[in-house]
Design a protein that fits this description.
Immunoglobulin-like, 6 helices, six-stranded mixed β-sheet, 38% strand, 24 strands, mainly beta
């Protein structure tokens, strides 16, 4: 009976391990405040807890959520594009740092997130090898910040030795090299504080000869230390615990899937990605066109990354998650829902249909006001 209940819970996508009594959505969980007792039901038993509900039946929503994980998943920001007289492509972006936002990271859990362009993770920046990348950085925060891009560039563009004061601006400019997938993040000390609060994102450099067409996604592995004890209370992929368990990612049977996977988890030495009932080709750092490994499990330290490529032969729901039990049970798990082509919902975009590319120009003051990419 327990097995059947577990299967039903997964297939109905009401949560892998629990359902909970409804809570007042307006009530904020504040550190140090007396907690109400909650009744939690998993497939095997009922129990009581005064701790955080990690896999709630209700989900975050509204204007104050830290990110929309489904929108982030397939959105690639290609910048404002122009061309130099020598035919070099310029891709120009604006990144705005803030450190005063209190946003919902799980139902009833509000946290002081530090953001690039208002979300955790920040926007995914994409260029092609050899492009000139120009980052207009604006510090709207109350602390000094910077942006450090992984990759090859000059020292003065490294975002390490020169911090940008509150209200200040700086232009980072470098050629996109080599091709691969990289993180970017603030490099202000104490570094763990700036990263753990959310100042990071993904930077993709495509090879000059494009990779084969695929349904492309970005997955950022991260966590939240909500009680400031240097231990994470929540673990996620793309910013919200358990999101893709309650909102499965639809993919097409027999179609190539490509995931740009980055680990920016603070406080824990490793993180990992396990794919159920399948194997993937792993391209470590994405800097080689030849697969390094054929596996269903990869472990990464902070800032490690890779490209994962796979197809599913059979339809149905398939789980993916951290193969570190604590991480999975505190939010880092999700589901792919594999469908035949004629049964896919219209909401999904593939082959970069959700890419953001602008050729018009705006002044920095306009962008700062609107928070555009």
């Amino acid at each position: 009976m327990a097995i059947l209940t577990t299967v039903f819970a997964l297939l109905s996508f009401n949560g892998y391990s629990s359902q909970v009594a409804q809570q007042d959505p307006k009530k904020k969980n504040v550190v140090g405040e007396a907690r109400e007792e909650n009744i939690v039901m998993n497939p095997h038993k009922l129990f009581k807890t005064t701790g955080d509900i990690l896999d709630p039946a209700s989900q975050v929503g509204g204007k104050n959520i830290v990110i929309d994980p489904m929108e982030y998943l397939r959105t690639f920001n290609n910048g404002r594009v122009s061309t130099l007289p020598n035919n070099t492509t310029i891709r120009e972006f604006t990144l705005i740092a803030s450190d005063n936002k209190i946003m919902e990271i799980s139902p009833g859990i509000f946290y002081n997130v530090w953001t690039f362009n208002g979300t955790v993770p920040g926007p995914t920046i994409r260029a092609t090898e050899g492009d000139l990348v120009r980052i207009n950085f604006i510090n709207n925060g109350s602390k000094p910040h910077s942006i450090h891009f992984h990759g090859i560039h000059r020292s003065e563009m490294d975002g390490v030795f020169d911090m940008v004061s509150p209200g200040g601006r700086f232009v980072y400019e470098f050629y996109a090299q080599p091709f691969g997938v990289f993180p970017y993040h603030c490099h202000m000390q104490p570094l763990e504080e700036h990263i753990s609060h959310g100042l990071y994102g993904v930077y993709i450099v495509d090879p000059k000869t494009p990779r084969p067409p695929a349904d492309e996604m970005v997955m950022m592995m991260n966590g939240y230390d909500t009680d400031s004890d240097r231990e994470n209370n929540f673990y996620t992929v793309n910013g919200i615990p358990y999101y893709y368990m309650h909102h499965p990612i639809q993919i097409e049977k027999d179609r190539l899937v490509r995931i740009y996977l980055v680990n920016m988890l603070e406080f824990d030495p490793i993180n990992n990605f396990h794919l159920h009932a399948n194997m993937y080709h792993l391209y470590r750092s994405g800097t080689n066109l030849i697969s390094d490994e054929y596996t269903d499990m990869v472990t990464m330290s902070q800032a490690e990354r890779g490209i994962l490529e796979f197809t599913y032969k059979y339809t149905g729901p398939y789980m993916f998650h951290a193969h570190k039990t604590e991480f999975a049970e505190k939010g880092w798990m999700g589901t792919f829902l594999v469908k035949d082509h004629d049964k896919l919902d219209n909401i999904i975009n593939i082959n970069n249909a959700s890419s953001v590319e602008r050729s018009t120009t705006r002044t920095l003051s306009q962008e700062a006001g609107r928070g555009s990419y």
